[in-house]
Amino acid sequence: MHIAIDEAKCMGHGRCYGVAPTLLHDDEEGFVAERGQCWKVPDELLGEAQDAADACPEGAIELLEQAPA
Ligand code: SF4
C-alpha cells in the first residue's frame, strides 16, 4: 500500500501526524512535512496510514494499492 499526500489540499490542520506520529511529521509551519510525496508504507504502519487518511478533513491523504504511474 502506498500513501500519497496532496500538497495543494493540505491546509495544515495537523490531525494526520497527530494520529500517525511514526509515519508522518510536522514541519515548522504546522503542515505535514511529507506533503507532496508518495511512498510505500511499511506493513507495520498500515494502521497509522489508514488513521491519517481518515483523520484528514481536507481529503488530502490517499491510500493507493499501486504507486501512481
Ligand atoms: S490532516 Fe490533512 S490537511 Fe492537516 S496536515 Fe495532515 S494532510 Fe494536511
TrEMBL record:
Source domain of life: Bacteria
Names of the cofactor(s): [3Fe-4S] cluster
InterPro entries assigned: Fe-S_cluster_ET
Keyword Electron transport: yes
Keywords, in A-Z order: 3Fe-4S, Electron transport, Iron, Iron-sulfur, Metal-binding, Transport
UniProt protein name: Ferredoxin
